[in-house]
Amino acid sequence: MSRVTTVLPGVLPGIRRARKEEREEISQLLGEAFMADPVSGWVFPDEEHRRAVHPRFFGVFLDAALRDGWVDVMEDHSAAALWLPVMVGETTGDGAGAGDSSGGGEDDGHDEMTEALAAADPGNERTRIVGELTALAHPTDRSHYYLPNIVAAPGRTGEGRGSALLEAVLERCDREGMPAYLEASNTRSKALYERHGFVFTGRTVDLPDGPSMWPMWRDPRG
């Protein structure tokens, strides 16, 4: 699930790699930023429970990115982006991760993530459903950088923070010849991702009696 903001002129805080000791603050940022997200509203219908469990739920993605990929954060902690390298028969050479994003087979990685998401809210079957359905849609035949989450803090959207984080990595994708992949969780973010070169893969992830997600792929430019 990913959300981004539009680019507007102005000076933004610097972007750097997050440190492991910033985990708690970033997990709280993720939890707050996704409170109004339609997919989160389906997974956690009760708002009070959603607010309580969100940092733990999104902490699953955060821990994976801190361990196997990287997290870009703005200096004032107003926005963050989580990236996971999914390497098919390859290894990375810059410390971002080695092998595939899970350290095992691709299916093992998806299974591990699904189980971790389910464990974040025991008894809530919807956590497992969203993990399984997104895993089924995730391409496995080509190496790429996966963006599970990108957020700006509530009250700081529309200032270009999300797009600045996104563009920094897309420039890297273009230099390295590396595709990128994500799931857009609303039509507004889908349109913005399309402006950044992402293309809908053609089949939505449809949650039972709930919202849809749009798997999107971006081939490198140039």
What's the short story on this structure?
With 222 residues, the chain is an alpha+beta fold. The chain is 41% helix and 18% strand. It is built from 7 helices and 8 strands.
Number of helices: 7
Helix content: 40-55%
Report the uncertain regions: 4-9, 91-105
Rg from Cα: 16 Å
- N to C succession of SSEs: EHHHEEHHEHEHEEE
Mean pLDDT: 88
Question: How much strand content do the residues show?
Answer: 15-25%
Task: Assign an overall shape.
Answer: globular
Structure description:
The chain is of the alpha+beta class and 222 residues long. It is 41% helix and 18% strand. It has helices at 23-33, 38-43, 47-68, 106-119, 125-137, 161-176, 187-195; strands at 15-17, 70-74, 79-86, 144-152, 180-184, 199-200, 205-206, 212-218. Strands 1, 2, 3, 4, 5, 6, 7 and 8 form an 8-stranded mixed beta sheet that branches. β2 and β3 (79-86) form a beta hairpin. The radius of gyration is 16 Å and the shape is globular.
Descriptive key words:
single chain; 222 residues; alpha+beta; 8 strands; 41% helix; 18% strand; globular
Topology:
Blueprint: E1 15-17, H1 23-33, H2 38-43, H3 47-68, E2 70-74, E3 79-86, H4 106-119, H5 125-137, E4 144-152, H6 161-176, E5 180-184, H7 187-195, E6 199-200, E7 205-206, E8 212-218
Parallel strand pairs: 4-5
Antiparallel strand pairs: 1-2, 2-3, 3-4, 5-8, 6-8, 7-8
Helix pairs in contact: 1-3, 4-5
